[in-house]
Design goal:
It is a single chain. By secondary structure, the chain is α/β, with parallel strands linked by helices. It has a single domain, classed as P-loop containing nucleotide triphosphate hydrolases (Rossmann fold), CATH 3.40.50. Helices cover 46% and strands 15% of the residues. It has 9 helices and 8 strands. The strands form 2 sheets. A 5-stranded parallel sheet has the order 2-3-1-4-8, sandwiched between helices. The chain has a 3-stranded antiparallel sheet with strand order 6-5-7. Strand 5 and strand 6 form a beta hairpin. Helix 2 crosses helix 3 and helix 6 packs across helix 7. It starts with a strand and ends with a helix. It binds adenosine monophosphate.
Length: 212
């Protein structure tokens, strides 16, 4: 069985991928993890990937696709895998489809963890930091007793530039799955949308049910 996991940043995709891999025995293939491993080991691929990753940009398709195809050519991926962070666009999706078709397989399910944009901005952008002591707060999950003031030391709270709503929205637009990619899987009948605005356990249960 081959599964693709799709979701915007803040949807809990990484956490769910680990839970599903543990519960289903499916091999977990994360291109983000593979790139980070290469960066850590300072390989040629890692050095190249880092220049893109540091800017929040995608690594070029040809590099990413060849890394992924090499990975699924190994024996432990013969029976199936769950792809996390791949594909990011239609070009990558087609390359994966072709590689699987060449061995008589296909993507069986594309699971989209759906969370509304406003909710993602609230999740990703609600962080406030104390200017004086560095204490962290989250507007909704862990708010200070009095907005704008640190509980611990009374210092002023501020938002980091990259946590400001406008910046978070821009990051979301850059990193959420493009509509054409979702449509690619909808058209082939394998897409399942899972409501990601529920508890972690409820989302895991729905994902496992969709895998069947
Ligand atoms: P992730 O952990 O999936 O958020 O990936 C971290 C970073 O690795 C991304 O911001 C990209 O720079 C790069 N990356 C991961 N997967 C891909 C992919 N399928 N295509 C291009 N770049 C990717």
């Amino acid at each position: 069985m081959f599964i693709v996991l799709l979701g915007p940043p803040g949807a809990g995709k990484g956490t769910q991928a680990q839970r599903i891999a543990a519960a289903s025995q499916l091999l977990h293939v994360s291109t983000g993890d593979m790139f980070r491993e290469n960066v850590k080991n300072e390989t040629g691929l890692g050095k190249l990937a880092k220049t893109y990753m540091d800017r929040g940009d995608l690594v070029p398709d040809e590099v990413t696709i060849s890394m992924l195809l090499e990975r699924i050519g190994r024996p432990d991926a013969a029976a199936g895998a769950m792809f996390d962070g791949f594909p990011r666009n239609v070009v990558q999706a087609r390359a994966l489809d072709d590689a699987l078709a060449a061995r008589g397989s296909r993507i069986d399910r594309a699971l989209l963890i759906a969370v509304a944009d406003a909710e993602l901005v609230a999740r990703l952008g609600g962080r406030w930091i104390c200017r004086n002591c560095g204490a962290l707060y989250h507007e909704r999950n862990d708010p200070p007793k009095q907005a704008g003031t640190c509980d611990r030391c009374g210092g002023d709270l501020y938002q980091r530039d990259d946590d400001l709503p406008a910046v978070v929205s821009a990051r979301l637009e850059k990193q959420k799955p493009p509509e054409a990619l979702i449509e690619h899987y909808r058209a082939s009948g394998v897409l399942r949308e899972i409501d990601g605005e529920r508890s972690l356990d409820a989302v895991t249960a729905s994902l496992l049910e969709a895998i069947g």
